[in-house]
């Protein structure tokens, strides 16, 4: 704004000088004719005084015009630079907000997920018991579902934590969408917004990407929910989910600032009323919502989308008008093939009496993990901290450690594993934590530890991790 005002003032100033110069030339010519000034040659070229003065004024006019032209170019460059600086400042403010939110999320996630394990995981353990009445099963299912929803909110907070590590794998976005459309969450969206038609147009032979299945699916869900809420304002609301292969030839394309290369585009469009101009720079802010807080989610949905795309080295482009909005997500294409996963049942992840030591500083976490593993057919032992675990293993070798990464005030999970490895170099372990995957987890895995399982986990998640590690 300041640069614009400076440009305007300078422009008017030089225009005023030019007007004064022209008036001076005209007045001089008039006086020369009226008062009959002596006509003297200029530089012996035979040019009379009034004409010479007119030449001077013309030269001054051309020089002034050149100066104005050069200054206009410089000021315009400064103005563009100022706009870029303002854009960068806005982005820095946005990143600072998200970073602060990430620090907050990281500081509370471990404790929250430990608490939620009792709500989200233990009901699942109890549901394995035979002879439960239908009423008891229904009550335990409600508790389990509520715990998992609360855990999902914590996961959203961790998603916007910039230091969180993602489990990356080769995947196809078409498969993510197709699987989500068969999920109970998608059925709930259709039941809630029955007046909205949801259309899916998936590109054939869509290229793969390398990413986090959980976070991509979460982004898809948030965009569909957001689009359905907007389209519900119309009598014939519509949400269109589409995918496409996308090639960028130029170094910058459109509003997404995409480097040259091959991308996979995920688009979710709605025919709602669009995003008001004053909201467009705020839609990715944490907890920002146009609706009443609590009635349509936490206000983290689009923040999660933005962070997910950034973590995958992608870009988001938003196109909005009064006819609706379209969110386009661009992910770098990946040439590797998708590995076929396994669908494991409880019978397939049963153990054969192997000895497992659970190391966790919280008694309820040891109880939950121990009950799961006993029901799966393992011999279970427990240690309340790292020092106790090292002492136990020295006298009582075990087949596998289930090792919590954060234990206070004792030694950490990483240090516990390092000490046990000195006693048994081939010791197997899986790692658990209420935090997302951290640098210490990666260091432990470099030492030979197996899968990382984030709390609160399900019976199947724990069972698969244990089974696969023991079979290595």
What does this protein structure show overall?
With 472 residues, this protein is of the alpha/beta class. Helix content is 51%, strand content 16%. It is built from 13 helices and twelve strands. It has helices at residues 2-34, 49-120, 122-126, 134-159, 173-181, 184-192, 213-231, 301-311, 363-375, 386-395, 413-423, 439-447, 459-470, and strands spanning 169-171, 196-201, 208-211, 237-248, 261-270, 315-321, 324-334, 355-359, 379-383, 400-404, 429-433, 452-454. The strands form two sheets. Strands 1, 2, 3, 4, 5, 6 and 7 form a seven-stranded mixed beta sheet that branches. Strand 11, helix 12 (439-447) and strand 12 form a beta-alpha-beta unit. Helix 2 packs antiparallel against helix 4, helix 5 (173-181) crosses helix 7 (213-231) and helix 7 (213-231) packs antiparallel against helix 8 (301-311). The longest helix has 72 residues, at 49-120. The relative contact order is 0.09. Residues 34-50 have low confidence and may be disordered.
In short:
The protein is α/β, with parallel strands linked by helices and 472 residues long.
Oligomer: single chain
- Average the pLDDT over all residues and give the rounded result: 79
Rough outline? globular
Terminal-residue CA separation: 65 Å
Q: SSE order, as H and E? A: HHHHEHHEEHEEHEEEHEHEHEHEH
How much helix is in the residues?
40-55%
Number of helices: 13
Percent of residues in beta strands? 15-25%
Count of individual beta strands: 12
């Amino acid at each position: 704004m300041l640069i614009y005002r400076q440009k305007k003032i300078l422009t008017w100033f030089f225009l005023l000088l030019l007007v004064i110069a022209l008036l001076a030339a005209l007045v001089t010519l008039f006086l020369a004719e009226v008062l009959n000034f002596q006509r003297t040659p200029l530089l012996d070229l035979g040019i009379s005084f009034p004409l010479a003065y007119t030449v001077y004024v013309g030269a001054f006019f051309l020089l002034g015009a050149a100066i104005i032209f050069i200054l206009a170019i410089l000021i315009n460059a400064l103005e563009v630079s100022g706009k870029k600086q303002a854009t960068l400042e806005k982005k820095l403010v946005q990143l600072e907000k998200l970073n602060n939110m990430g620090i907050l999320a990281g500081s509370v996630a471990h404790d929250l997920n430990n608490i939620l394990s009792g709500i989200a995981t233990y009901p699942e353990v109890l549901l394995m018991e035979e002879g439960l009445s239908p009423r008891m099963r229904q009550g335990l299912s409600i508790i389990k579902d509520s715990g998992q929803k609360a855990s999902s909110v914590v996961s959203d907070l961790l998603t916007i934590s910039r230091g969180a590590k993602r489990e990356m794998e080769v995947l196809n976005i078409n498969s993510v969408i197709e699987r989500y459309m068969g999920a109970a969450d998608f059925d709930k969206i259709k039941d809630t917004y029955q007046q909205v038609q949801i259309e899916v147009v998936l590109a054939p032979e869509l290229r793969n990407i390398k990413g986090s299945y959980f976070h991509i699916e979460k982004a898809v869900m948030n965009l569909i929910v957001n689009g359905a809420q907007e389209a519900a304002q119309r009598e014939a609301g519509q949400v269109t989910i589409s995918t496409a292969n996308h090639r960028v030839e130029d170094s910058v394309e459109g509003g997404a600032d995409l480097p040259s290369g091959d991308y996979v585009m995920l688009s979710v469009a709605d025919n709602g009323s669009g995003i008001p101009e004053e909201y467009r720079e705020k839609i990715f802010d944490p907890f920002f919502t146009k609706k009443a807080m609590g009635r349509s989610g936490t206000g983290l949905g689009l923040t999660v989308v933005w962070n997910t795309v950034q973590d995958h080295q992608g870009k988001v482009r938003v196109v909005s008008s009064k006819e609706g909005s379209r969110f386009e997500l661009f992910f770098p294409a990946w040439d590797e093939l998708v590995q076929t996963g396994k669908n494991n049942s409880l019978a397939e992840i049963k153990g054969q009496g192997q000895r497992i030591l659970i190391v966790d500083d919280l008694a309820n976490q040891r109880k939950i993990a121990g009950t799961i593993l006993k029901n799966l057919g393992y011999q279970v032992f427990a240690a309340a901290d790292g020092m106790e675990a090292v002492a136990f293993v020295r006298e009582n070798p075990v087949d596998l450690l289930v090792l919590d990464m954060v234990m206070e005030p004792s030694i950490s999970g990483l240090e516990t594993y390092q000490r046990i490895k000195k006693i048994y170099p081939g010791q197997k372990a899986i790692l658990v934590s209420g935090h997302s995957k951290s640098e210490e987890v990666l260091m432990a895995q470099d030492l030979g530890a197996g899968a990382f399982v984030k709390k609160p986990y399900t019976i199947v998640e724990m069972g698969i991790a244990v089974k696969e590690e023991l079979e290595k």
